[in-house]
Amino acid sequence: MMKGVSESLSGRIGLVTLLGFSLRESNGVEFDTPFLPTENYFAKRRQHLASISYDDVWNTIHRGSMPELHDNPDFNWQMFYGAYVRTYIDRDVRELSEIGDTVKFTKFMIATAASTGQLLNLASLARDWGSASRQPNGGCLSLLHPISYTCFSHIPTTSLSGQ
């Protein structure tokens, strides 16, 4: 989106990243103290717990946290995310990269989503999405974070090599 912005606007515009609602926002919890793993924090947090039913948890998982889906419970979430992904690939990915095969990139996104919460195994990921090489294109993986905030890398802060 910023590709056509000239350098003359530098310092005169502000960019705001709008993500989905947090669980606190969607459940109306007003406790907004930043997380610190201390007893004092947990004691204060317990005072503001929201009562959430089992069905509501699964509804949140399936519908996601986008404001339109939260505010309009009758909106078809499958249609919403289908259009979201299509727009993401057609506009953002094509503008910022030289990805030509959108079907292959869609397979890559599905394979990446299927490995959520696991250690990243690049060879396995390449096999799952049908990459000709044994390693996936690092450019594909790097596109998932800065554009859509769907992929985060957590780099260890200590080395375990000596253990």
What's the layout of helices and strands?
Blueprint: H1 23-26, H2 39-46, H3 54-63, H4 67-71, H5 77-96, H6 102-114, H7 122-129, H8 138-143
Please supply descriptive tags for the structure shown above.
163 residues, 8 helices, mainly alpha
Mean pLDDT: 78
Number of beta-strand segments: 0
Oligomeric grouping of the chains: single chain
Supply the number of structural domains: 2
User: First CA to last CA: what distance?
Assistant: 46 Å
Put simply, the count of helices is 8
Main beta sheet? none
Short summary of the structure?
By secondary structure, the chain is mostly helical.
Describe this structure in words.
Helices cover 45% and strands 0% of the residues. The protein has helices at 23-26, 39-46, 54-63, 67-71, 77-96, 102-114, 122-129, 138-143. Helix 6 crosses helix 7 (122-129). It is globular. The termini are far apart.
